[in-house]
Amino acid sequence: MDPLRILKALSNPHRLDIILWLKQPEKEFGVQVHTKTLIDFPNSVSVKSIQKRCGVSQSSISTFMSILENAELVESRKIDQYTYFRRNEKVIREFGEWYNKEVSIQSDDIDKLLKTLNLEDTSYPTTEETSVPGEQLAAEINTKGSDYDENRKNKILPYSLYLGIKEKEL
Length: 170
Known about the structure:
Elements: H1 3-10, H2 13-21, H3 25-29, H4 35-40, E1 45-46, H5 47-54, H6 58-70, E2 74-79, E3 82-87, H7 89-102, H8 107-116, H9 160-163
Antiparallel strand pairs: 1-3, 2-3
Helix pairs in contact: 1-6, 5-6
């Protein structure tokens, strides 16, 4: 199981939908007509059914399914001239366990984190302490060029706030 490959595969909304739909294939796609799928490859769905439900081109579905298969999220089987897919529940379960262990924050972890917070911490500067001097507050943007000022007839620099240049020095 490759978590990065799985996350990339699930990052596309269509591919995520396909995985979710394949969780309950009969509900989402109806019963598959091919009798060999019921015996040899249960809970599987044909590419054509997935394409119809997804509403995209055959080539897009082929690409989506290839990515899902490379991530080991689905298994495929060719029966006669049709290809069928189903979820790989073992890998999906492993990924879920990995995600819960490595990524998600468990409720006991949140409790531990909250205990370490001091909500009355005053070590951060107040807004008065971090204020920018008044003459540096204005940043000018002109539509006629960066050095044009119709009223003062002198050059100004836009974004003087970021450059630390006082208006009087311009």
